[in-house]
C-alpha cells in the first residue's frame, strides 16, 4: 500500500494557542496523490495535541476555558515537584486530548464536516518550535 509523509512546522508563543492546520494537512494529502485512504496527523512532543473542532473565536475561547477548568495551571502537579518546570498541566492536557488524529481521505480530499477543522493545541508554558508529522496511506 503506498504511503507518503509530510511535516508541518509551527512556532508557538505558549498562550494556549489553538491553530487551524486543516489546509496544511490537505496540502500534504494532495501532494501524496493518495486518492482513497487515511491521513494520520501526529504531533511530536508530550505537551501539545491535535483534534478537530469548529475553529471560530467563540469556540476557541470556550475550549481554552474548559481546559483551564479541567486541568488548571495553578494546581500543584507532582511533575512540578520532580522537574521544576511548571508545566505539569501541559502534560496532563496533552495526554487527555491526544497526540494523533486519523482522518479518512476520499477522492484525494480529507473527509471533514462543514464546520470541522483539524487543529493543533499548544499547552506548554513557554514558546516552542513544533513538528507535526502527517502520514498518508492508501490507494493511488
Keywords:
39% strand; Jelly Rolls; 4 helices; elongated; three-stranded antiparallel β-sheet; 140 residues; alpha+beta; 29% helix
Structure write-up:
This protein is an alpha+beta fold. It is built from four helices and eight strands; from the N terminus they run E-E-H-E-E-H-H-H-E-E-E-E. It has one domain: Jelly Rolls, CATH 2.60.120. Helix content is 29%, strand content 39%. A hairpin with a 2-residue loop joins strand 5 and strand 6. The model has no long low-confidence stretch (mean pLDDT 96).
Give a quick rundown of the structure:
With 140 residues, this protein is α+β, with helices and mostly antiparallel strands. It has helices at 22-32, 57-70, 78-83, 88-97; strands at residues 3-12, 18-20, 36-44, 48-53, 100-106, 109-110, 117-122, 128-139.
The average pLDDT value, as a whole number, equals: 96
Reading the helices and strands in chain order gives: EEHEEHHHEEEE
- Tell me the count of domains: 1
Instruction: Note the total helix count.
Output: 4
Q: Poorly predicted ranges (pLDDT <50, ≥5 residues)? A: none
Helical percent range? 25-40%
Helix-and-strand structural type:
alpha+beta
- Name of the level-1 CATH class: Mainly Beta
User: What is the spatial order of strands in the main beta sheet?
Assistant: 1-8-3-5-6
Give the CA-CA distance, first to last residue. Answer: 9 Å
What characterizes the major β-sheet?
A: 5 strands, antiparallel
Question: What name does the CATH topology carry?
Answer: Jelly Rolls
For the record, the CATH architecture stands as: Sandwich
* Whole-angstrom Rg: 16 Å
Amino acid at each position: 500500500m503506498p504511503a507518503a509523509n509530510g511535516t508541518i512546522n509551527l512556532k508557538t508563543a505558549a498562550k494556549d494557542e489553538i491553530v487551524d492546520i486543516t489546509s496544511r494537512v490537505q496540502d500534504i494529502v494532495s501532494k501524496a496523490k493518495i486518492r482513497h485512504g487515511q491521513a494520520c496527523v501526529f504531533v511530536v512532543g508530550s505537551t501539545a495535541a491535535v483534534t478537530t473542532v469548529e475553529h471560530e473565536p467563540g469556540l476557541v475561547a470556550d475550549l481554552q476555558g474548559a481546559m483551564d477548568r479541567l486541568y488548571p495551571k495553578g494546581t500543584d502537579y507532582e511533575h512540578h515537584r520532580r522537574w521544576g518546570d511548571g508545566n505539569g498541566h501541559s502534560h496532563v492536557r496533552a495526554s487527555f486530548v491526544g497526540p494523533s488524529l486519523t482522518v479518512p481521505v476520499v477522492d484525494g480530499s480529507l473527509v471533514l464536516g462543514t464546520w470541522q477543522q483539524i487543529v493543533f493545541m499548544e499547552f506548554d508554558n513557554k514558546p516552542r518550535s513544533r513538528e507535526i508529522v502527517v502520514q498518508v496511506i492508501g490507494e493511488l
